[in-house]
């Protein structure tokens, strides 16, 4: 599995301009319960020292209800995907919504 050129272009635009964000809740609601996805999200958060930060995060969404073959393909191609999108700062694997809670993502970003 390779990264589509359009995906790479959008990623470079995100890195340069940081202009594609939805709210985190809107983003998580858009994920399907039975389909694996790689998701890149520009995560804005406040540190414990009250500093505004932003980290480009890769979430490997592989829900328990997705087909086994799909989970295997996504698991085996994640490293290549990450290499092709140079600049990922935070990585998270999630199989259900609780694993990608905003607090969980923030704890990895700090």
From TrEMBL:
Q: Which InterPro entries match?
A: ADF-H, ADF-H/Gelsolin-like_dom_sf, ADF/Cofilin
The Gene Ontology biological process terms listed for this entry are: actin filament depolymerization
Q: Name one GO molecular function term.
A: actin binding
Q: What Gene3D superfamilies does the annotation carry?
A: Severin
The terms describing its cellular component in GO are: actin cytoskeleton
Q: What SMART domains does this protein map onto?
A: ADF
Q: Which CDD domains does the entry link to?
A: ADF_cofilin_like
Domain spans labelled ADF-H: 1-110
Q: Which UniProt keywords apply?
A: Actin-binding
| Recorded family membership | Belongs to the actin-binding proteins ADF family.
User: Could you identify this protein by its name?
Assistant: Actin depolymerizing factor
- Organism name: Handroanthus impetiginosus
Its lineage opens with: Eukaryota, Viridiplantae, Streptophyta, Embryophyta, Tracheophyta
